[in-house]
Fold these 4 entries.
Entry 1:
Amino acid sequence: KKEKTLALIKPDAVTKMGSIIEAILDSGFVISKAKMVLLLRTEAMDFYNEHHSKSFFSDLISFMTSGPIVAMEVVGDEAVSSWRKLLGPTNSSIARSELPQSIRARFGTDGTKNAAHGSDSIASAARELEFFFPSSGGRAPKNTA
Ligand code: CMP
């Protein structure tokens, strides 16, 4: 079934965006929207609100606002689960021992600096796509320039 999901290239991997986009397209996905943005702290806290009580929340917000990110709408068959499979395990160190070909294994560093993000469900994908690419009247994160 054709689905849409949100893919983010995080600040640690923006210098490798060419290779990451190549991997996405080589896997048969279509990238239907893309933009580079610099998140405000308030925006990052809103995007990751489900993690607000976690021990790593402040590190995560600092990291995600440390530089530009690339947000993409990715379309394909079972795109939500397929993109997360291509991403590999959340922790890049673990990804390297389990799935050496995954995006996080190839381009990430550790449990926080893990190169990329994928929505974890159809409902999350809808919310996260609306966050970065509002359908109408919404306030989107501003372009880096
Ligand atoms: P992401 O898929 O974007 O979703 C939440 C993010 O929080 C995750 O990728 C990591 O960047 C970060 N994260 C998740 N778990 C941990 C953890 N145990 N320690 C530090 N950072 C984490």
Entry 2:
Amino acid sequence: SRHFNVLAIESSADDTCAAVVNSSRRILANVVIKQHAVHEEFGGIYPMSAINSHQQNMPYAIRRALDDSRLDIVKDIDGIAFTRGPGMPGCLSVGMNAAKSLAAALKKPLIGVHHMQGHALTSTLTSWPNEPKYPFLTLLISGGHTLLLLAKSNRLFEILATTRDESVGRTFDKVSKLLGLKWTNLGPGDALEKFCAEEIEVDHPSVPPFPRPLHGQLSYSFSAFHSHVTNFMNEHGGHEKVDILTRRALARAFQTAAVGHLEEKLILGIDLCKSKNIHIADIVVSGGVASNQYLRKRLVSCLAEYDRHTSYHLSFPPPHLCTDNAVMIAWASMHRFLANESDPYSIELRPKWSI
Ligand code: KG4
Ligand code: ZN
């Protein structure tokens, strides 16, 4: 088949990303410029500062991706892809305008990609040659997403479940903060996991049991876990007053409940597919929270227990391709470029875009 090089741009949230990927599944460049300072200062993404950072960083991200790839944009790049949505409109437009201008100036075909399709298709790139076979399930758990997706083909996706309130990643972050934990270099969620894993005490201080929100329903909710921790800490005078053993018991109970919640919904999702006669063999778990080792172990054993006759193949793409990146955007555009499809240069953003 034809050899094709894609330059892709992603700017839907707070990371400014550019990448070059070819049709032989080689990643020739993967540049991600993060906005750490913004995150740490406000504990969230502030639209105006995110837009400003994209505007400052985008030219460098693109230049570096091309340098890393050792390709020439005029001679070697065959198509330009960008994230069309969903995401923050101001952020998306920085990436879209860069992509459009390059494509129009250089007379290259242009394709606008759905951000979630990018995440959902990542494993078909990274797990080669044992990539998941359609239909497969993707559990996307990060700071930005809490989603259970059914990938039916490279063009057909269905959201089986999403969160009604907070994302699972942000909930780990907030609970970590409430417990007064110091960040590890991998952030507050990782700090919480490490804190839970510290030595086992003989004496387990008791903490009130966590709620089971939306039990039996194929939908996520994390705000009740968050308020459970908030209430306990407030009633006991904040993290400076609560002894470390109690804080650790609370952290563990939170992590157990949060992972239990994800587990329950995954099983409900598999049940739903079964009831519709959709045979699932592969389950891909991705996003920042998927790096949690406790979660990985629980999902493995829960699936093994769930159905002793079916063996599910559980996979985790490498962490740097689970978080937002432009490699996944390039890859999600590839099958369309290879089918000679392209979008008009007048294409518009879809900040709210169901999959
Ligand atoms: O995919 P990601 O890196 O980017 C965004 O969504 O922005 O996900 C980051 C999220 C954060 O909320 C972080 O605390 C969480 O993933 N996270 C973890 C762990 N490592 C990162 N949560 C639980 N356990 C971990 N080990
Ligand atoms: Zn994302």
Entry 3:
Amino acid sequence: PKSTILQRGAFILLEGCDRTGKSTQAEKLVAALNQRGHQARLWKFPDRTTGIGQMIHGYLAQGKDLNDQTVHLLFSANRWEAMDTLKTHLLQGTTLVVDRYAYSGVAFSAAKGLDLHWCKQPDVGLLAPDVTFFLDMPIEESMKRGGFGDERYEKVALQTKVREIFHALQEPNWQLIDATQAIAAIHDSLVHSSLQVIAAAKDAPLQCNLWA
Ligand code: NYM
Ligand code: MG
């Protein structure tokens, strides 16, 4: 019999400033892909469930202080500690819908004043996304959404800088999404694009070359 080669899943990333609807869209996208018969699962960074993730959570939500370089490296380590698991899922054919990644890592730390080049280095060589959906909207709009201001970084001036740095980090496989659109309209376009990305990624090798 003809041998069958297992087709890998796609690495689909959602990025953007706080309160742009990433988590809502990521959950809806996973459900829609599963419904269409694609194995898909959600992954979120920071992953607050690990030991490193708990240190990050203490910093973001519980007022624990850490110096800027240290917290930057913790966010990066929180991605590296997930790499083997993420690779295994992708190679088993599962598509990953990832809510934030290294672009957030660099955008937030550089917005605080750390050197952009320095910020990228710890994440060099991570798995590279097949597509990045950048959910973009004016900060004045996202500010109006519920919950803004609960965590460290949820401040207008900082978010404005973060947005600028995100734009500077754009790569050819980014798709800019107007995040002020209705939830259903954004969802439809994410599903449409994701199906194309899944079809294109299935025979392509995994790329462990972020910023390399
Ligand atoms: N954040 C997130 C960083 O500063 N660096 C990173 O590497 C990542 C992944 O954490 N304001 C920031 C962005 C958010 C905060 O993320 C918590 P979320 O998606 O709100 O849980
Ligand atoms: Mg948040």
Entry 4:
Amino acid sequence: ETMRSFLKALPKCEHHVHLEGTLEPELLFSLAKRNNITLPDHFPKSKAELTERYNNFSDLQDFLNFYYIGCAVLLSEDDFFDLAWSYFERVAVNDGLAHSEAFFDPQSHTERGIDISVVIKGFKRACVKAEKELGISTKLIMCLLRHLPNEHGLQTIDQAKEFIVNGDIHALGLDSAEKPFPPELFAECYAKVKELNPEINLTAHGGEEGDHTYVSNSLDLLKTTRVDHGVNSVQSEELLKRLSEERVLLSVCPMSNIKLQVFQNIHEIPLNTFLEFDVPFSLNSDDPAYFGGYILDNYVAVHENFGFKLPVWEKIVKNSIHGSWCHQERKDEML
Ligand code: HPA
Ligand code: ZN
């Protein structure tokens, strides 16, 4: 308990959380009802049954199938606002979060006929309110779904153009099923976004189920300056040295890695190798409503399994702040 309060008090930054992945079973069922959405026949009927099913994902795809059904209960701008606001409020109050860079998946909504501006305006309104009332800083990262074709990504970028240009979308990311969809498929999308706004930041999921080349190719071919998950980077010593030299942050998600069976135990996650090679990483929740823990639970789980001493926690927290995409003044406040 004292360890939890110590970890809560650290100025934590979250770089890897999918807003759609913060949809708690309770909100899922209540939005389904409010919006008259019929859930599939095979979908668990109660909160308890659903939570139990969430405890037994066999892999990334098994989880994604549930995640996209969950997305389908979100319709109105208020739905998107409510979702993001409940996440921001929860982590600011319960977890001591200082800064949140949150992903969203517009294609999982536009595919269902929802206008992209409905999604972005709802999320943005929650960001503004969180900054004002909770004192945290926030950024939105638009992700493209890699199981959809490049052309669909380009269309999405075109639909989101005004928000890419005005900076409401602070960065571009890439998520969903990794393995048969290597980063190079989306090089055109990444180049297009950078052309629309040269200031935009770039990241991509890689090295979660894909091998180390998914990490290096994200850097080389998409020009990302961060990689999400990236745990399979340990397969290449050359890559580890590069990540350290170029200060590329990996957004590691410990509880997600266990729930999706990337590793069987938290202590198998290569945090000690990253520390040894001085590869910067942050600790994150990924899809907290699905994986049973928010950011502080992830910090606690790492502490219980690695027993890091104070200097290591200081290093992790400092690397997380330095690797954040906020102004230097905001970093100085957190440091
Ligand atoms: N990996 C890939 N796609 C995702 C994830 C993830 O962890 N969460 C939501 N979409
Ligand atoms: Zn993720």
